[in-house]
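Before a colleague's protein record goes any further, I have to sign it off. Alongside the sequence sits a line of tokens, each denoting a local backbone shape. I want your independent view on whether this chain really folds as the tokens say. Where you disagree with what is written, explain briefly why. This is what I was given:
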Amino acid sequence: MACRQHLVYQARMMPQSSSRAVPAKESAPAAPVTLATAIALAVANMIGIGVFTSLGFQVKDLPSGFALLTLWVVGGVIALCGALSYAELATAFPRSGGEYNFLSRIYHPAIGFLAGWVSATVGFTAPIALAAMAFGGYFAGVVPGLPPLALALALVWSIALVHLRGVQRASAFQNVATLVKVALIVAFIAAAFALGNPSSMSFAPTAGDAGHIVSPAFAVSLAFVMYSYAGWNAVTYIAGEVRDPRRTLPYSVIVAVVTVTLLYVGLNAVFLYSTPINQLAGQIDVAVIAGQHIFGDTGGRIVGALICIGLVSTVSAMMWIGPRVIMVMGEDFSLLAPFARRTANGVPLLAVLSQLGVVTVLLLTQGFESILEFIQFSLTISSFLTVLGVIVLRFTQPGLPRPYRVWGYPLTPLVFLAVSLFMMINLVLERPAQSLAGVGMVLTGLLIYGLSLRYPRPHARSL
């Protein structure tokens, strides 16, 4: 019986022109997302706390300015390889949901469901909680005496209220918040070079830099850099809400990744230019230390305020994207059907409130740190399988309409796959228990998937 129901489910999701399983209904756009908003979402999702904290661990083993900046350039190139690969899939299958949508079509609905299960449950909620707590911590440093937890909760609830007012309001808020973030970072970089006292660090290449770039220390540092670039695939989670996706999706990911790469290189150059390397080594608050060297005693508060303002758009981007995954899953699976219902202004109300509830619990229990440790492996597997799908589809569906074809194929996806495989191997070796726990959590989604096959496909309704 279960086997029969599974076959009926697959037939329901299979278009006449293809033998691949495809979700039955393309999600109707809640409101048009413009190119500017798509870029803002990707930029905001990438620039979080990582770039302001990771340099201190990199300089310990890479005492070369040229090698350190090269590290961030290489990270940007790899992120661009992944983003371009996702763009080919997103323009061929312009539906929201990210990896859920792609993997369901490329491999099997069960694989897509598992990827969506991770994204919908903890893939976005844990990073939101971490960013909110960082906001609270830095804000309390700017204005001493304020409780960080209360500030974190106030941030996520306030942003949730903005998103509940509709996609148009969310778009305007996201655009303004991201523009302010980028403008402040550019101003900080310019002020640092103008006001800071140069350290002894040189950015010119030397004879020993080639050895640094091919060293194990460079490879290990690259893994941390890639986590700072995470979020380059943000717009694919809302592809169904994007205006003219065949044009907007490729342009948005290219502009976003290039912009973030330039900002990341500029920020790290400022940190190295203004602060002696021995004062950065092993420190997590490198941005605050550099700010004190540039602006004096008030520098720490200035940088703290900069980070706080920047984190607003980061949290907003993830709170927008996350609910769209379970919303699209609800359009295909009966047990999740309530999450697909939208309000008159296009908001998946229950999906947004559920995410907000999980984030609140994580903040109150401080449970997000342990979750972050074991979801990294699962999220890397999802992106690995997605980019691999670009190559798979070239063989299995050569006639598939592809409004955009990834530049440099097959080298572009292969570069991303090689780095992702390296990261997964290191995660297993360095954190075997967490990696296995992540896989175990993914597999729990099979229970929900199996139960959903017992019911007919739902029809999403408006609230």
